[in-house]
Amino acid sequence: MRPRRLLFLVIVSAPGTLVPVPGAQAAERFELCTSDQGFPPYTRPDGKGSLQNLARDAAKDAGITLGNHGAPRARCIEELRSGYSAGGVGAYLASREAFLVYPGEAGQPDRRYRLGATDFVVYRRIGSTVRWDGKRFSSLGGSGAIGAQSGFSHAVRLRQMGVKVDESARSAEQLLAMLDAGRFEAAVVETSQATAALAAQPALKLEALPVRFEETDLYLMVSRQTWLQRRELVEALWASIRKRRESQEGR
Fold first, then answer.
1. Per CATH, the architecture of 29-115+216-248 is what?
2. The pTM is what?
3. How far apart are CA 238 and CA 133, in angstroms?
4. pLDDT, tens digit, for every residue of 2-11?
Protein backbone atom coordinates (compact mmCIF):
# COMPACT_ATOMS: atom_id res chain seq x y z
CA MET A 1 0.00 0.00 0.00
CA ARG A 2 1.34 3.43 -0.94
CA PRO A 3 2.09 5.44 2.23
CA ARG A 4 -0.14 8.45 2.75
CA ARG A 5 1.02 12.01 3.00
CA LEU A 6 0.13 14.17 5.96
CA LEU A 7 -1.36 17.47 4.88
CA PHE A 8 -0.60 20.45 7.12
CA LEU A 9 -3.08 23.25 6.56
CA VAL A 10 -4.37 26.35 8.26
CA ILE A 11 -7.88 27.12 7.11
CA VAL A 12 -7.33 30.33 5.19
CA SER A 13 -7.74 31.19 1.53
CA ALA A 14 -4.66 30.79 -0.63
CA PRO A 15 -4.24 31.24 -4.39
CA GLY A 16 -1.56 29.18 -6.12
CA THR A 17 -0.73 25.84 -7.64
CA LEU A 18 -0.12 22.53 -5.91
CA VAL A 19 3.55 21.61 -5.93
CA PRO A 20 4.05 17.91 -6.76
CA VAL A 21 5.98 16.06 -4.09
CA PRO A 22 7.65 12.65 -4.53
CA GLY A 23 6.00 9.81 -2.66
CA ALA A 24 7.22 9.01 0.84
CA GLN A 25 9.98 6.46 1.11
CA ALA A 26 8.65 4.91 4.30
CA ALA A 27 5.43 4.79 6.27
CA GLU A 28 7.01 7.05 8.91
CA ARG A 29 7.33 10.00 6.52
CA PHE A 30 4.35 12.37 6.19
CA GLU A 31 4.27 15.18 3.67
CA LEU A 32 2.85 18.48 4.96
CA CYS A 33 0.86 20.86 2.82
CA THR A 34 0.71 24.47 4.04
CA SER A 35 -1.63 27.11 2.69
CA ASP A 36 0.54 29.27 0.45
CA GLN A 37 -1.25 32.34 1.86
CA GLY A 38 0.25 31.59 5.26
CA PHE A 39 -1.08 32.51 8.70
CA PRO A 40 1.92 34.02 10.51
CA PRO A 41 3.22 33.50 13.05
CA TYR A 42 1.48 30.11 13.16
CA THR A 43 2.20 28.86 9.64
CA ARG A 44 4.35 30.13 6.80
CA PRO A 45 4.72 28.88 3.23
CA ASP A 46 8.33 27.90 3.92
CA GLY A 47 7.20 25.60 6.74
CA LYS A 48 8.77 27.67 9.51
CA GLY A 49 5.69 28.92 11.35
CA SER A 50 5.44 28.35 15.09
CA LEU A 51 2.84 25.59 14.83
CA GLN A 52 4.68 23.96 11.96
CA ASN A 53 7.83 23.88 14.06
CA LEU A 54 5.93 22.34 16.97
CA ALA A 55 4.34 19.69 14.75
CA ARG A 56 7.69 18.84 13.16
CA ASP A 57 9.44 18.47 16.52
CA ALA A 58 6.57 16.40 17.91
CA ALA A 59 6.60 14.15 14.86
CA LYS A 60 10.32 13.58 15.27
CA ASP A 61 9.72 12.49 18.87
CA ALA A 62 7.14 10.00 17.56
CA GLY A 63 9.53 8.63 14.92
CA ILE A 64 7.86 10.45 12.03
CA THR A 65 9.49 12.77 9.48
CA LEU A 66 7.41 15.69 8.22
CA GLY A 67 7.99 17.32 4.86
CA ASN A 68 6.33 20.55 3.70
CA HIS A 69 4.87 22.03 0.53
CA GLY A 70 2.37 24.77 -0.22
CA ALA A 71 -0.97 24.49 -2.01
CA PRO A 72 -4.20 26.46 -2.46
CA ARG A 73 -6.71 25.98 0.32
CA ALA A 74 -9.41 24.62 -2.00
CA ARG A 75 -7.08 21.91 -3.29
CA CYS A 76 -6.05 20.97 0.24
CA ILE A 77 -9.66 20.69 1.37
CA GLU A 78 -10.49 18.36 -1.53
CA GLU A 79 -7.48 16.18 -0.71
CA LEU A 80 -8.64 15.96 2.89
CA ARG A 81 -12.16 15.09 1.85
CA SER A 82 -11.03 12.38 -0.55
CA GLY A 83 -8.39 10.99 1.80
CA TYR A 84 -5.60 11.57 -0.72
CA SER A 85 -3.89 13.70 1.94
CA ALA A 86 -3.97 12.61 5.53
CA GLY A 87 -4.73 15.66 7.64
CA GLY A 88 -4.42 19.34 8.38
CA VAL A 89 -4.39 22.04 11.03
CA GLY A 90 -7.51 24.02 11.78
CA ALA A 91 -10.26 24.86 14.20
CA TYR A 92 -13.02 22.44 15.11
CA LEU A 93 -16.26 22.67 13.17
CA ALA A 94 -19.05 20.13 13.47
CA SER A 95 -19.50 20.17 9.70
CA ARG A 96 -15.93 18.92 9.24
CA GLU A 97 -16.60 15.71 11.17
CA ALA A 98 -18.08 14.30 7.98
CA PHE A 99 -14.52 13.80 6.67
CA LEU A 100 -12.13 14.71 9.51
CA VAL A 101 -11.23 13.30 12.92
CA TYR A 102 -9.98 15.43 15.82
CA PRO A 103 -8.21 14.27 19.00
CA GLY A 104 -10.88 13.53 21.59
CA GLU A 105 -14.47 12.38 21.42
CA ALA A 106 -16.65 13.00 18.39
CA GLY A 107 -18.26 16.42 18.69
CA GLN A 108 -15.96 17.43 21.54
CA PRO A 109 -12.25 17.72 20.68
CA ASP A 110 -9.83 17.39 23.60
CA ARG A 111 -8.01 20.70 23.85
CA ARG A 112 -5.17 19.07 25.77
CA TYR A 113 -4.01 17.84 22.36
CA ARG A 114 -4.27 21.18 20.59
CA LEU A 115 -1.30 22.59 18.74
CA GLY A 116 -2.08 26.03 20.07
CA ALA A 117 -4.74 28.67 20.56
CA THR A 118 -5.21 32.20 19.35
CA ASP A 119 -7.49 35.14 20.13
CA PHE A 120 -9.85 36.81 17.69
CA VAL A 121 -10.99 40.35 18.39
CA VAL A 122 -13.54 42.77 16.95
CA TYR A 123 -12.42 45.97 15.22
CA ARG A 124 -14.56 48.96 14.26
CA ARG A 125 -13.93 52.37 12.75
CA ILE A 126 -13.04 55.08 15.25
CA GLY A 127 -16.24 56.96 16.00
CA SER A 128 -18.47 53.98 15.25
CA THR A 129 -21.13 52.94 17.79
CA VAL A 130 -20.88 49.21 17.08
CA ARG A 131 -20.78 47.17 20.30
CA TRP A 132 -19.89 43.57 21.16
CA ASP A 133 -20.63 42.30 24.68
CA GLY A 134 -19.28 38.78 24.26
CA LYS A 135 -22.63 37.34 23.20
CA ARG A 136 -24.18 39.71 20.69
CA PHE A 137 -23.57 42.75 18.52
CA SER A 138 -25.52 45.97 18.74
CA SER A 139 -25.69 49.20 16.72
CA LEU A 140 -24.83 47.42 13.49
CA GLY A 141 -26.11 50.20 11.24
CA GLY A 142 -25.20 50.85 7.64
CA SER A 143 -24.60 47.58 5.79
CA GLY A 144 -25.22 45.59 8.98
CA ALA A 145 -22.38 43.27 7.94
CA ILE A 146 -19.28 42.03 9.72
CA GLY A 147 -16.10 41.17 7.85
CA ALA A 148 -14.15 37.92 8.24
CA GLN A 149 -11.30 36.38 6.30
CA SER A 150 -12.42 33.82 3.78
CA GLY A 151 -12.66 30.28 5.17
CA PHE A 152 -12.14 31.11 8.84
CA SER A 153 -14.25 29.12 11.29
CA HIS A 154 -15.64 32.09 13.21
CA ALA A 155 -17.67 33.05 10.13
CA VAL A 156 -19.84 30.03 10.95
CA ARG A 157 -20.45 31.32 14.48
CA LEU A 158 -21.32 34.77 13.15
CA ARG A 159 -23.92 33.33 10.82
CA GLN A 160 -25.34 31.19 13.62
CA MET A 161 -25.89 34.46 15.50
CA GLY A 162 -27.91 35.77 12.57
CA VAL A 163 -25.25 38.27 11.48
CA LYS A 164 -24.61 39.12 7.85
CA VAL A 165 -21.02 38.13 7.00
CA ASP A 166 -18.70 39.42 4.28
CA GLU A 167 -15.93 36.87 3.60
CA SER A 168 -14.36 38.51 0.56
CA ALA A 169 -11.06 39.42 2.29
CA ARG A 170 -8.17 36.97 1.95
CA SER A 171 -5.78 38.59 4.42
CA ALA A 172 -5.94 40.63 7.62
CA GLU A 173 -4.50 43.66 5.84
CA GLN A 174 -7.21 43.49 3.18
CA LEU A 175 -9.90 42.90 5.81
CA LEU A 176 -8.99 45.96 7.89
CA ALA A 177 -8.55 48.17 4.82
CA MET A 178 -12.05 47.18 3.71
CA LEU A 179 -13.42 47.98 7.16
CA ASP A 180 -11.77 51.40 7.11
CA ALA A 181 -13.30 52.03 3.68
CA GLY A 182 -16.80 51.31 5.01
CA ARG A 183 -17.35 47.95 3.31
CA PHE A 184 -18.80 46.57 6.57
CA GLU A 185 -19.43 47.84 10.11
CA ALA A 186 -16.95 45.70 12.07
CA ALA A 187 -14.43 42.94 11.45
CA VAL A 188 -13.29 39.88 13.37
CA VAL A 189 -9.55 39.35 13.07
CA GLU A 190 -6.81 37.40 14.84
CA THR A 191 -4.91 39.56 17.35
CA SER A 192 -1.35 39.25 16.08
CA GLN A 193 -2.47 39.51 12.47
CA ALA A 194 -4.38 42.70 13.28
CA THR A 195 -1.34 44.22 15.00
CA ALA A 196 0.86 43.51 11.98
CA ALA A 197 -1.78 44.75 9.53
CA LEU A 198 -2.24 48.05 11.37
CA ALA A 199 1.52 48.57 11.59
CA ALA A 200 1.71 48.12 7.82
CA GLN A 201 -1.21 50.52 7.27
CA PRO A 202 -0.83 53.31 9.87
CA ALA A 203 -3.38 55.54 8.14
CA LEU A 204 -6.26 53.24 9.06
CA LYS A 205 -8.56 54.76 11.70
CA LEU A 206 -9.65 51.64 13.55
CA GLU A 207 -9.92 50.45 17.14
CA ALA A 208 -10.37 47.11 18.88
CA LEU A 209 -13.34 46.51 21.16
CA PRO A 210 -12.40 45.50 24.73
CA VAL A 211 -14.20 42.13 24.78
CA ARG A 212 -12.55 39.52 22.58
CA PHE A 213 -14.69 37.62 20.09
CA GLU A 214 -13.35 34.16 20.93
CA GLU A 215 -10.32 32.05 21.69
CA THR A 216 -9.79 29.49 18.95
CA ASP A 217 -7.96 26.19 19.42
CA LEU A 218 -6.02 24.82 16.46
CA TYR A 219 -5.68 21.05 16.08
CA LEU A 220 -3.92 18.53 13.93
CA MET A 221 -6.98 16.92 12.34
CA VAL A 222 -6.81 13.85 10.12
CA SER A 223 -8.94 12.47 7.31
CA ARG A 224 -11.27 9.63 8.22
CA GLN A 225 -9.42 7.35 5.83
CA THR A 226 -6.13 8.06 7.60
CA TRP A 227 -7.71 7.52 11.01
CA LEU A 228 -8.99 4.08 9.99
CA GLN A 229 -5.72 2.99 8.40
CA ARG A 230 -3.07 4.65 10.62
CA ARG A 231 -4.77 5.17 13.96
CA GLU A 232 -1.84 4.14 16.21
CA LEU A 233 0.56 6.42 14.37
CA VAL A 234 -1.87 9.35 14.52
CA GLU A 235 -2.45 8.85 18.24
CA ALA A 236 1.31 8.77 18.82
CA LEU A 237 1.65 12.07 16.98
CA TRP A 238 -1.18 13.68 18.96
CA ALA A 239 0.36 12.49 22.23
CA SER A 240 3.73 13.88 21.19
CA ILE A 241 2.15 17.23 20.27
CA ARG A 242 0.56 17.45 23.72
CA LYS A 243 3.86 16.63 25.44
CA ARG A 244 5.81 19.18 23.40
CA ARG A 245 3.26 21.96 23.81
CA GLU A 246 2.90 21.47 27.57
CA SER A 247 6.68 21.46 27.89
CA GLN A 248 6.89 24.76 26.01
CA GLU A 249 4.17 26.23 28.21
CA GLY A 250 6.03 25.14 31.35
CA ARG A 251 3.37 22.76 32.61
1. 3-Layer(aba) Sandwich (3.40)
2. 0.81
3. 35
4. 444 443 344 3
